[in-house]
Design goal:
alpha+beta; DNA Binding (I), subunit A; 4-stranded mixed β-sheet; 25% helix
Length: 201
């Protein structure tokens, strides 16, 4: 069977393990391969792709896959679950800006990415660290005004408390085209006070 030369859309499939723990985003080709290897334990949600593969030489029938929004793959790894419970995502500006929804946490305005910057709430020069709980998205104007000071020293009020996304929130931040089925699923794995719960369909 061949699954080459297929046409894929922009939607990805959310893969979970057998217990339902969200793990990663897969493209249609990756999901089709897991289906062909009979590694998919369950599948549900909206069909996001229809794939047509190769023609079976013996039967003359063309293989076809309906790719769902969410799949659960066989296997459970208790060690992995413990790792994900303590997981701290890599900190980079792209994910930081998504966490803060492209909003400057000082003035409250939303900006295009090229006008945003990473601000250390407690400046590095004052013992601050480059971690999720000490960084916020700031427009360049506010960042320049704050300079090498804390918000208190600069008389600037933070609009939200910076936080480290958990693994499910990090998965959410990695995908621009999440559909309702997937969002509803991920929300159940967000902390109760997650600001991303408001995106539930």
């Amino acid at each position: 069977m061949s699954i080459n030369q297929l046409s894929f859309g922009t939607h990805q499939t959310l893969r979970t393990d057998a217990s339902g723990m969200p793990l990663e985003w897969l493209n249609a080709s990756q999901v089709a391969k897991l289906m062909a290897l009979e590694m998919v334990q369950y599948a549900y949600g909206t069909i996001v792709h229809h794939l047509h593969g190769g023609i079976n030489a013996r039967t003359g029938i063309q293989s076809e896959f309906e790719i769902p929004a969410i799949i659960g793959t066989k296997g459970y790894n208790n060690h992995l679950h413990k790792q994900l419970a303590r997981y701290v995502p890599p900190l980079n500006n792209q994910t930081l800006f998504k966490r803060d929804q492209n909003m400057c946490l000082y003035c409250g305005d939303v900006f295009p990415k090229f006008l945003l910057s990473r601000d250390h709430v407690t400046p590095l020069s004052q013992g601050g660290v480059d971690t999720w709980r000490n960084v916020v998205t700031a427009c360049k104007r506010c960042n320049n005004h704050k300079a090498d000071r804390t918000p208190l020293q600069a008389n600037m009020r933070l609009m939200a408390i910076p936080f480290a996304p958990n693994y499910a929130e990090y998965i959410f931040l990695q995908n621009k085209n999440i559909i309702a089925d997937q969002m509803d699923y991920l929300v159940n794995h967000f902390p109760k006070k997650s600001p991303f719960r408001k995106f539930k369909a």
